[in-house]
Amino acid sequence: MTGVLYGVGLGPGAPDLITLRAARLIEDAKVVAYPSLAGGDSFARAIAADLIASDAQEIVMDVPMTVERAPAQAAYDTGAAQIAAALDAGRDVVCLCEGDPFFYGSFMYLYARLSDKYQVEIVPGVTSITACAARAGMPLAARNERLTVLPGPLPEGELRTRIEGAESVVIMKVGRHLAKIRAVIDDLGLTDSAMYVERATLPQEVVLPLAEAPEKAPYFSMILLTKGADPWL
Ligand SMILES: C[S@@+](CC[C@H](N)C(=O)[O-])C[C@H]1O[C@@H](n2cnc3c(N)ncnc32)[C@H](O)[C@@H]1O
Fold first, then answer.
1. pLDDT surpassing 80 at residue 60
2. Which atom of ligand 1 approaches the CA of 202 most closely?
3. Which pLDDT band, with edges at 50, 70 and 90, does 78 fall under?
4. Which fold has domain 128-226?
5. CA-CA distance, 154 to 131, in Å (whole number)?
6. Ligand 1 mean position to 169 CA, how many Å?
């Protein structure tokens, strides 16, 4: 019998936003896997730290943050092989994923490599979008309004066109793209409708109108923008 691979969403950072199902799986896990920034810490592991048994085997995937895809793909190839070895030995593996595994989650790279050969179960998590909207006090969409999710690394022209045609907008992966995103939102005259949220739900959380946001943003930051009708109408 081969083991089961669980892709477990951890929520946006606060450990008490881990679902009960995810917490039970992590506490019982004999093997846990997670990505970490090459040579650095793992945000996913930090969120779940209090739940991981001291004698659990840990499979760490050192994923480099490079623009080229090949180094990250190699890290996921290696991680997938280690996870496959545990599954082949009949051991279940719980893979930790910040937020939700199927929403811009790194777990998708493992799912692509392993789901045709092994049983995989996904445990959804609270996404950073809903966490940031909650912390910013910003309802995102009501009735038939549309919510557009944009990655910050998109080219300036595409960001502009998509924001222009949108109602509510969430811009993820802000980080080093903050100045470009800000310039586009400013140009469209929408700065007063935008909020900036950094490290939502963590002790270091920052929530500010975009106009007051710092000049530098960490990777774990987001901009929310609503142009839709008042949801209370
Ligand atoms: C690779 S995506 C991971 C998304 C995650 N799977 C989810 O469900 O939210 C990383 C991006 O999510 C956003 N993000 C994740 N956690 C966040 C947090 N606690 N506060 C603000 N933004 C966050 C940031 O925009 C970051 O660049």
1. yes
2. 19
3. very high
4. 3.30.950
5. 23
6. 15
Q: Which atom of ligand 1 is nearest to the CA of 43?
A: 16
pLDDT at residue 233 is higher than 80: no
Residue keyed to tokens 């946001």: 213
> Measured from the CA of 175, which atom of ligand 1 is nearest?
27
Q: What is the pLDDT of residues 152-191, one digit of tens each?
A: 999 999 999 999 999 999 999 999 999 999 999 999 999 9
CA distances from 231 to 4, 143, 150, 154, 193 (A): 43, 8, 22, 29, 14
- Per domain, the residue ranges of the chain are 5-123, 128-226
Ligand 1 contact, 105 CB (< 6 A):
yes
Q: In a mutational test of the pocket of ligand 1, which residue from 128, 169, 221 has the highest number of ligand atoms less than 8 Å from its CB?
A: 128
Tell me which CATH homologous superfamily contains domain 5-123: Tetrapyrrole methylase, N-terminal domain (3.40.1010.10)
How much distance in Å is there from the Cα of 118 to the middle of ligand 1? 28
CB 107 within 8 A of CB 197: no
